[in-house]
Write a structure and sequence with these properties.
The protein is α/β, with parallel strands linked by helices. The protein has a 6-stranded parallel beta sheet with strand order 1-8-5-4-2-3. The protein starts with 11 loop residues before the first strand and ends with a strand. It is globular. Helix 6 runs antiparallel to helix 7 and helix 6 crosses helix 10. It has 2 domains: 168 residues, 3-Layer(aba) Sandwich (Rossmann fold), CATH 3.40.50.1970; 196 residues, Up-down Bundle (Dehydroquinate synthase-like, alpha domain), CATH 1.20.1090.
């Protein structure tokens, strides 16, 4: 029996160069009294001065988001702003979008944030939230179209978990690749490989359906077109960044429906301990995962890999699709996302192995295999 796909998306998604300028008009379709969640890079960049004049009258305040939100930080924001706004605008990378999404629903719920968190909470979200507009300035997380808001507590709970509900998909998303102008190559690579991992894991998910395969394959094709030229400072680079932004949006759409796999099953646990860039963590795990796929005896996995490789590289007759894809990604990266000076202790490897999961992988990877992925991705000390 085939799996039923439940696909949730934005009420409207505006895409294209200059689409940010549609934000004031979109605010006219919301209740108004907007609170802006924004990253420092956006507020200090060239686009905010031109936009702020047309928004000032509708903004009740600005919340600057400098890192992944913790339950404690979210509770402070709710205490300060509850009842003072009816619309939330989130402009920035994944952490900023998740912070705005989390606030939009917690402002409509009576309990502290931790009570609603997956893994540790005991109360489901009702689905009520404030009106929500999400505008990514990076192409990786796809948070502007996902059903969850990631919350990270590296100090008290040692957990990285989500607030999750279909209504957490923002009402409106604006995809304007101009907001990525001037982004360092390392950031473009770290975010881009996160988008790839979302699409790739959703494609290989045991819950993937023909609809998910169609959407994820389209996203992976856009990734392949964009990846080699994403950091160029010319028209080709701008077109590539727009393709990657759409690929990221499709990745968010697919992961919300089909789920992710063992890479994110490990990366999420690392995020509970380390403040490492999530996309880079996924990228460093992705390369040894390709090696694991190359040795896989699972017929379904191999069929999907061969089909994908032929779709992405129709002129390349490759007997080993996982290795071909791995080498192509490394050869065409604008920055070596796999290089790192970070280390893990032997005790941390053990802890991460025990806490990690396979999520929605077709294959159930044992603890030894998960430990191998971790130790091949990072040096181990002690």
């Amino acid at each position: 029996m085939s799996t039923i796909t439940a696909l949730c998306s934005n009420q409207q998604t505006l895409s294209g160069s200059g689409s940010l300028q549609e934000l004031p008009a979109l605010l006219g379709q919301t209740p108004g009294d907007a609170l802006l969640f924004a990253s420092p890079s956006f507020l200090n960049g060239s686009h905010w001065p031109a936009l702020s004049a047309s928004l000032t009258a509708q903004l009740v305040g600005i919340v600057e988001v400098t890192q992944e939100a913790s339950p404690q930080q979210l509770d402070e924001w709710v205490s300060a702003w509850r009842g003072r706004c009816r619309t939330v605008i989130a402009i920035g990378g994944g952490s900023t979008l998740d912070a705005g999404k989390a606030f939009s629903t917690l402002a409509c719920h009576p309990l502290p944030a931790v009570r609603y968190l997956e893994k540790v909470g005991d109360t489901p979200l009702s689905g009520e939230r404030l009106a929500l507009i999400a505008i990514p300035t990076t192409a990786g997380t796809g948070s502007e179209v996902t059903q969850n808001a990631v919350v990270t507590d590296t100090q008290v709970l040692k957990t990285k978990a989500s607030l999750r509900h279909p209504n957490l998909v923002p009402d409106y998303a604006i995809l304007d690749a101009r907001l990525m102008e001037g982004t360092p190559a390392a950031v473009l690579a770290n975010c881009g490989i996160d988008a790839f991992t979302h699409l790739f894991e959703a494609y290989l998910s045991r819950h993937a359906t023909p609809l998910i395969h169609a959407l994820s394959t389209t996203g992976l094709e856009l990734f392949v077109e964009a990846w080699p030229t994403i950091a160029l400072d010319d028209d080709l680079g701008e077109a590539s960044r727009e393709k990657m932004l759409i690929a990221s949006w499709l990745g968010g759409l697919c992961l919300a429906s089909a789920g992710l796999g063992v890479i994110h099953g490990i990366a999420g646990e690392i995020g509970a301990y380390k403040t490492w860039h999530h996309g880079k963590v996924c990228g460093q795990l992705l390369l040894p995962f390709f090696d694991l796929l190359a040795d896989s005896g699972n017929d379904r996995q191999q069929q999907l890999l061969h089909k994908l490789n032929h779709r992405l590289f129709p002129l390349a007759q490759q007997q080993f699709p996982a290795q071909h894809l791995k080498l192509w990604i490394m050869d065409n990266a604008c920055s070596p996302f796999w290089e790192s000076d970070c280390t893990l202790t032997a005790d941390e490897v053990t802890e991460l192995t025990q806490r990690s999961t396979n999520k929605n992988s077709v294959v159930d990877y044992c603890a030894d295999q998960r430990a191998t992925l971790i130790t091949q991705a990072w040096h181990t000390a002690g």
